[in-house]
Amino acid sequence: MKARHEYVLCAGAIDTPRLLLLSGIGPAADLAALGIETRIDVPGVGENLLDHPESLILWEASRPIPPMSAMDSDAGLFVRREPGAARPDLMFHLYQIPFTFNTERLGYDVPEHGFGMTPNVPRPRSTGRLTLADARPETKPLLDFRYFTDPDGYDERTIVDGLRLAREVAATEPFASWIAREIAPGPALRSDEDLSAYGRAAHHTVYHPAGTCRMGSATDELAVVDPELRLRGAPNVRIADASIFPLMPSVNPMVTVLMIGERAADLISADLTGRREQTAQQSQQTARQSEQTARQSEQTARKRGQGSRE
């Protein structure tokens, strides 16, 4: 397959970098170690892996929860921990079901009727990495999200604050009368250290991988695409998916991904229009030159004819 103008890669934050790496576009040393010929050395491919990590506080319900629900998580909460902050820095889902996949493996009870809140880090500062396990296309890539590893402990602090805030919400009505007991982390865990250890152990992904082909300026050594979404070293290739995120958006990334697609379409359309206009201008210029040449030839022929008659 050969494109007349350019290619657009939009396989997502996992498969887009995987396809680039398998094609020899990525960190040269990593590719050489796997026996893949380097076609373009782009160190940032697979770096900057982002996600929205969240933990869970689980309660046993005092009575059966009514089954009316669109998706078993119909309510959410956004919080600004710092007054005057530009955006929320803590997010929650409210699950009307006992969401116990991770708490059960930690030894906590599974209630017959339960619900929970999930403190989520909307703007995580921890970043991970995607790499290839080998050079075979059928092998799944390796994902190291490196959750809660940011040097300042911001992500960890966000989860601890979220667990504390969830308890405050649960102490008010109408929540309070629906709660028989707190199951996880359990009322005995009160210190920052205990809540952090629990929050990290019980955390899970919400399946928002992003950032593995991040957008950046020409001076950003780990940028994979430029502000016009063009792949470094291959200007006829653009990337249009969540892999180009330099930072994680605070909310679910779907809307941002749609915006990227719209922006890519605008950029491509503008380029094609510019090319057509340039081609039209060149054609007009060529036509004018041809007309001018024809007139000059005609004038030259007339002069010669006049000279012969004389």
The helix/strand class is: alpha+beta
Question: If you consult CATH, what is the topology of the domain at 53-124 and 150-202?
Answer: Cholesterol Oxidase, domain 2
Total number of helices: 6
Helices and strands, in N-to-C order?
A: EHEHEEEEEHEEEHEHEEEH
Defining traits:
single chain; alpha+beta; Cholesterol Oxidase, domain 2; five-stranded antiparallel sheet; three-stranded mixed sheet; 6 helices; elongated
Explain this structure.
The protein is of the alpha+beta class and 310 residues long. The protein has a domain at 53-124 and 150-202: Cholesterol Oxidase, domain 2. It has 6 helices and 14 strands. It has helices at residues 12-22, 28-33, 101-105, 154-170, 192-201, 254-309, and strands at 7-9, 25-26, 40-41, 53-54, 57-61, 75-79, 90-95, 114-120, 129-131, 142-144, 179-184, 204-205, 230-231, 234-239. A 5-stranded antiparallel beta sheet has the order 6-7-8-5-11. It has a 3-stranded mixed beta sheet with strand order 1-14-13, with no helix packed on it. A two-stranded parallel sheet has the order 2-3. A hairpin with a 2-residue loop joins strand 13 and strand 14 (234-239). Helix 4 (154-170) packs across helix 5. The radius of gyration is 29 Å and the shape is elongated. It starts with 6 loop residues before the first strand and ends with a helix. The model has no long low-confidence stretch (mean pLDDT 91).
